[in-house]
Amino acid sequence: MSRVVVIGAGVGGLAAAARLAALGHEVALHERADTHGGKLGVVEREGFVFDTGPSLLTLPGVLEEVFAATGGPSGLVIEPVDPVCAYTFADGTRLDMPHDPAAVPAALDAALGPGAGAAWQALHERSGRLWELVGEAVLRRPLDLRALLRMSARLRDLRAVAPWRTLAGLGRELLPDPRLRTWFARYATYSGSDFRRTPAVLSVTPYVEQRFGAWYVRGGLRRIADALLERCRSLGVAVHLGSEVQAVTVAGGAVRGVRVGGREVPADVVVCNADAAVLYERLLPAGTARRARRDLRRAPRSLAGFVLLLGLGPADRAGCREPGAAHRVWFPRDYAAEFDAIFGRHPRPVPDPTIYVHAPDDPALRPDEASEGWFVLVNAPVHDPGRGVDWDAPGLRERYADHVLATLAARGTDVRDRVRVREILTPADLERRAGAPGGAIYGTASHGARAALRRPANRSPVPGLYLVGGSAHPGGGLPLVLRSAEITAGLIGPAPGPPEGTRRGSSAGSPPRAAGAPPRPRPSTRPRAPWPSPTR
């Protein structure tokens, strides 16, 4: 049996803890906040319930794999989102993107004119070839320079990956309609990046969304974190909330445990779900992992987000809600200017931002049938009082919130007189709540041909120390974070001790259970974690 400490109860940390417990390890999970979920947060106000993190699930099979590998089905109700999103362009054009990829060409032709569907189809097929190359070889395995070199040595594969090409360049080449190019460019923000600097290989992002569909978890995506926490506890993971890890202890060049509340907690393995910058800059002793620290300092931080949580009253005198797609995007006239404001030499709140709204039609998230809750997001520069934007400056959050709502009204959707609840979350708030430096949602931005190589690996330079989560390989977003947990658990492997077939969890060789059966309880004779439970 080996002792594992997981730092952080975000989705990556919870998934890694569950997988490692199922592999027979004694796992303790420490989370500095009083609740779990990390960036997959929730806010409740006056009967409204708001997800404050991801609002769309792609590759739902990846989520189900975690539960299948750790004892059985998740119990979550996952529903298709159709349309995937309603896009409104600066000229007033409206595009409802269907859930079914077979229906996409006709929808594009109807909204943007003949030929738009054929252009999308050519891009979709090209991106499918890229998915064949990277979906398994890169995104489901540890970062492997040799595998990338082998891929680049095959001329056909090298041409498909085209590391010298950006998303912006690929859009200009394949998408003649400027509105379709704007739609395509938006997918760079799924990795927190500028589409003019993002490698064209990230065109797999819209391909995955179309090929495997867009999905919603009934009750809100926060239910994912709840289900993972329940699975961890059913497997015997010792979960400590409000328990901040102050340091990762190292002796003889290898990890020895963590320090929590002034106590030394020994561990054979430490898995860090905190942001990689936090690990290398704050938690490890000075002089440890110098190259990894240097590489992170050189990498550009991803964009952040400015969020409004709006509880809206009825849309008319009859007391009805306003019908509409669950996901809506309003584009500005100058999309490139948005990224100049965020990533330029003098960062500033975006004057004319893209506005994204998630308005789920879910009775569990609103106080009554006449109301609706909106999650409103605009891209923003990170919180950087010294060299950029100080999101804690007096009055800034209120002024910018008013500006976002006025911009939305100017684009034809004015909800200001319907607001019953208004909560503002800035990049500074995200930094405090989720421990993301500057509120950078994805850690580092995917800028340049070497972006994948600059992202921290799951195995750290310190023996016994591993990384999981959106700031590590393979990247941010729910499916990739869950993949990072799979990769990290695979690197650590089963716990030494009992013969194969006696460990917990289906992935560790235990006999199959009936479909839908609850996870097997932890044997009462198996001791709890042998180290003390630290205080807050």
Automatic annotation (TrEMBL):
Q: Tell me one Pfam family matched here.
A: Amino_oxidase
Database matches in InterPro entries = Amino_oxidase (IPR002937), Carotenoid/retinoid_OxRdtase (IPR014105), FAD/NAD-bd_sf (IPR036188)
Chain intervals with Pro residues compositional bias: 518-536
Q: In this protein, which residues make up the domain named Amine oxidase?
A: 12-293
Supply the alphabetized keyword list: Carotenoid biosynthesis, Oxidoreductase
Span list, region Disordered: 491-536
Kindly tell me the pathway this chain contributes to: Carotenoid biosynthesis
Q: Report the superkingdom from the record.
A: Bacteria
Q: Where is the composition biased (Low complexity)?
A: 504-517
Family that this chain belongs to: Belongs to the carotenoid/retinoid oxidoreductase family.
- Protein name, per record: Phytoene desaturase family protein
Species? Pseudonocardia yuanmonensis
Gene from which the chain derives: crtI_2
